[in-house]
Amino acid sequence: MKTFDLNAEPRLELGKKSVKALRKEGKIPAVINGGAIVELPFNGTLKPGEKLVEIDDKRGIITTDVVVKNDDVRKLIYTPDIFEVNLNVNGETKKVVMKDLQFQPVKDTVLHIDFLEVYPDKPIVMEVPVKIEGHAEGVKAGGKLVMSMRKLKVKAAYTEIPERLVINVDHLGLGKSLAVGDLHYEGLELMNAKNAVVCAVQLTRAARGAAAKAAEA
Q: What angle do CA 217, 203, 180 make, to 5 degrees?
């Protein structure tokens, strides 16, 4: 997994008015989830931007509201690559991954970013891009390779998550498909439904015609 260095400021003012002002300044509100779990009642001191969210009567989790500059995150957002982000806030560097993005539906600008703090011994679930390699037998026979899923959800320690899930299709014949249950990667657990089709070689009109002629002959 590639690394990306990013600076953030604690977000002290919440609400629609402050969000609007931030966006005019070319900044994006964000939150860091997955922080430390603490016992309740909490007697510690929260840093700027931090808040305590109750999990149950005995435990809470610390999240951090932050602000990042739009120009600083362009290479992080507009790419299929997955990054381990070294996020500096309050003079401390947290290791996070980008978990979710909210876009403005018309202008397609980024409205909000969700980061997830990660630890080497704590598995996370992330979507990983799929990369096809090889030349399918079915394509050589006149079929068309169709991708149904371009990303798969995997569960693993973040240090084990690859940048791509490589799928070799050399032996995929005409009319055949590969489902999630057919794929196996060491150290990774695939979280999608096992019967979900990832890719398939569909019969084209030309291939059907050739098969019909062959049958008649």
A: 135
* Cα–Cα distances in angstroms (integers) from residue 81 to residues 51, 78, 164, 165, in the given order: 30, 9, 8, 12
Residue 7 CA to residue 26 CA, distance in Å, equals 14
What residues contact 118, with CB distance under 8 A and at least 6 apart?
34, 84, 95, 96, 97, 124, 158
Minimum mean pLDDT range among 74-83, 89-98, 173-182: 74-83
Give Cα 3 to chain centroid, integer Å: 15
Q: Average pLDDT of the chain?
A: 91
Section 46-75 average pLDDT: 93
Neighbours of 68 (CB within 10 A): 23
Nearest to 103 by CA among 95, 113, 94, 93: 113
pLDDT confidence bin for 128, thresholds 50/70/90: very high
How far apart are the C-alpha atoms of 21 and 28, rounded to whole Å?
10
Omega cis (within 30) before 41: yes
- How much of the chain exceeds pLDDT 90, in percent? 73
- Residues in Cβ contact with 195 at an 8 Å cutoff, skipping those fewer than 6 apart: 179, 180, 181
Task: Say what the pLDDT of residue 217 is.
Answer: 58
